[in-house]
Structures are given as C-alpha cells and as structure tokens.
Write a structure and sequence with these properties.
- The protein has two domains: 246 residues, 2-Layer Sandwich (BirA Bifunctional Protein, domain 2), CATH 3.30.930; 101 residues, Anticodon-binding domain (Rossmann fold, 3-Layer(aba) Sandwich).
- The longest helix has 20 residues.
- Helix 1 runs antiparallel to helix 5, helix 5 packs parallel to helix 10 and helix 6 crosses helix 7.
- The chain has 15 helices and 16 strands.
- A hairpin with a 6-residue loop joins strand 15 and strand 16.
- It is α+β, with helices and mostly antiparallel strands.
- The chain is 37% helix and 21% strand.
- The strands form three sheets. Strands 1-5-6-11-10-9-7-8 form an eight-stranded mixed beta sheet. A five-stranded mixed beta sheet has the order 13-12-14-15-16, sandwiched between helices.
- It binds adenosine-5'-triphosphate (ATP) and magnesium ion.
- The site of adenosine-5'-triphosphate has 19 residues, from strand 6, strand 10, strand 11 and helix 12.
Length: 433
Amino acid sequence: MSSKLSAVKGMNDLLPEQAELWELVEAKVSEVFRQYGYRPIRTPIVETTPVFVRAIGEVTDIVEKEMYSFNDALNGEALTLRPENTAAVVRAAIEHNLLYDGPRRLWYFGPMFRHERPQKGRYRQFHQFGVEAFGMAGPDIDAEVIQIGALLWQELGLTPFITLQINNIGSAADRQGYAKALTAFLEQHVDQLDTDARNRMHSNPMRVLDSKNPEMQALLASAPLLTDFVSDESKAHYAALQALLAAAGIAFEENPRLVRGLDYYNNCVFEWVTQELGAQGTVCGGGRYDGLVEQLGGKPTLAAGFAMGIERLVLMLESLSLIPASALQVVDIYVLVVGEGVVAEGLALARSLRTAFPDLGIIGHCGGGKYNSQLKRAYASGARLAVILEQDADTSATPNTVKLRRLDDSGQSETTDIDSVVAKVGEFLSISA
Ligand code: ATP
Ligand code: MG
C-alpha cells in the first residue's frame, strides 16, 4: 500500500454528520440575512495581495504574519488567499459600480485562510459569514447589523451564552491624537514591553492594545484611554447607538479596550463574545468602516458590517448539546430491488416515490444481492419502511405487486398492487402524497 495522505494542518474535513449540522446553521443564517433584505455576493477565494494589505493595514497580525501569499507561477503577480472578506467585497463593489445608486446590503459566506497556530476554535482554513451595509451613516444601520447578530444567536439557542461588547474608537483623526499619547506612554514603559509591542509602538501603537500577552494587558491598564480623544460628534453617534440598542432590548457591555484586529474600522465597533470557548471567545466582530471604500479607490461611501466564524458557533452548539435533532439527515424509505430483471423498474419505483413524497429521504438499493442482504442494508440505513420489488424467482416475470415492510419491531408487512404503492406508502407512514 502507498503511504497515507492527510489534510493540511489546521484545515479540516467536515464529515457527513458535521456537514449536515453546518448546512442547518448555514440555512438559518442565510434565512435571517434574507429577512433583513441583505443580498448574497460571492467573490473569489484569491485576490491580489494589495486588496488586503491596503484594507487591513501593513502593521496588523493578519498582514504581518497570517496571510497565505504567493506569486502566480505564470506571471509573478502577488496573490493572497483571502484572510477575511470585507476587503474583497469592497473591491468587488467598487469594480462593479454597486455603490452609486443608494444603499446596498450584502452578505457572504465562505472559507478564509490565516496562517495561525491551530487550536480549538482557531484554524488555518475557517469559514465566515458576514454582512456589509453600504451608504448609510448610522447609528440606525449599526443597530441593525447588531440586531441581526442577536437574532442569529436566538435562532441557534445561543443567546444566554453570548454577550455583546461595544466601543467607540473614534475617527481616523481622533485616533492620530490618541496614537501620539499612547506612544508617549509606551516609551515611558519601554523596558516592560514585549517584542511585538516594541515593534509596534511607533508604527501602529493601537495594535499594542490588541496584545494577547497578559503582562502587556496589565501594563495597559494604566495607559491613556482612547475615549478621552474621541470627538463630540463621534460620541453623540455612539450614545445614539446605545439608545437604539437599549430600545431594541439588546444588552451590551462597554469595553474601552476593544479595538479590533483590522485597521479599517472607525467609530462604533463591537464583538460578540462567549465564555464557552476558552481563549477563542470572540464569535463575531464588526463595526463601521467609513473610510475603506475610498481607501480602495472608490468614492467616499459610509459602511458598517460584521464577520462571524461558523466553527466557533458549531463548537458552542456541540459543547452545550444544542444540536437540533433536525440537523441529521434521515432516510425514511429503502427500496429493495431483488433480481437483475427488475433494476430498471426499481429505479423508476424509487423515482416515483420521491416525486410523490418530496420531503422524504428515499434510498434505492444499488449493487444487487439477495433479499436478506438488501434487508440488512435497509435496517442499517435507519429507514422506517422497506418497499420491496422482487422478481419472480421461477418465472423471472416482472412483478405487478410490491411488498411494504415496517422496519420496526412490529415487522408489519403487506403486499400491494404496484399501481397503488404511493397510496399504500402514505398509509404506512401516515402521510398523504
Ligand atoms: P481572534 O482575536 O480570535 O484572533 P480576530 O479578531 O482575528 O479573532 P476577526 O478577524 O474579527 O477575528 O474575524 C471575525 C470572526 O472570525 C472571529 O470572531 C471568529 O469567529 C472567526 N475567526 C477569525 N479567525 C479565525 C480562525 N483562525 N479560526 C476560526 N475562526 C476564526
Ligand atoms: Mg486573529
């Protein structure tokens, strides 16, 4: 035997049971987006590298060390597997002139790639849902995108386990003033800084606030606060958002240290966090990014949105035993096809049952074999009912009757005319076709 191959580290296979749970989550999430009038957009998994460098910022964890970047072997073009999708959606919206005729509400879902150290809730290929709302100043649209998150947790039964944190990080100009004060503070404590913090204290001091090093976090407890540098206009926007959230019954905590790991955000930012996942506690993050469209070459366009990782949501559903029974696909009927001469009739029979009962899962036996071995398969499939088409062993004639057999302890069975099989199946399963 040849040596075994395995998946790339940090990139996961989803086996059927898990993939079915994902499908259920995907269906619920996309339904909520649709209810809010958001329309889907799909962009390529690969973009030219400047799309991300210009949007996310040179001095960020993502751009500095997490991107899968490579040169196209044919023309040398610098390309990157998308580490997030806001930048790509903005690129596409500009390229296709989506931002010139009023507001746009868009959503996406798909794989993202970051070269991180794999651990529970942190992978190298992961999947994000996101919404992007263009052309609206807020705070009403900010409240809307937050409300969408709240509704999603409700739909998934996760509301008691997820809390909302918000912060106001001000405008780009506000942050420049703050960056100066923060750099001065960091310079005073340079002996206590770790390497990352030292590297960033001049190039992007606010990134130091995002440090996961507990010693840095302790030191930062006495650092100047961004809130003190934020303009009155921005504060008014933030206060109005809080009032809208309160009116909508959405509880929130203010977290003055919340800065987000991407440079394009401004004013209101938020994260939905949980205690259920250890260090990987953020399930969804977002905020306003009013400067990004212009920064990527479009005309100035106000914007707000969020991205959430489906892996962390699924981990929560699993660890809290909240997986709905309806997530697993069920087989209802197994059609036995006994005898080589009835294969075509067997296919047609299964097909007509699927047409009559579109909501049921119906497996048509393939691969031949004797009655008993097919019946074993039928039981193993989990089906409730076996529909048996059997060629006459003596005459080889095509049968004009079909046998129905309950695959439960009763083993109740009945032979019926092939023309009335649909009605009989309906009777057995207590449903009408
Ligand atoms: P973290 O602080 O955990 O690294 P982040 O700030 O890098 O998160 P964002 O870029 O804001 O995360 O992405 C939004 C969401 O995408 C996260 O809240 C999380 O659910 C998910 N996510 C981000 N990175 C990963 C990853 N490597 N593996 C799984 N999910 C991820
Ligand atoms: Mg990260």
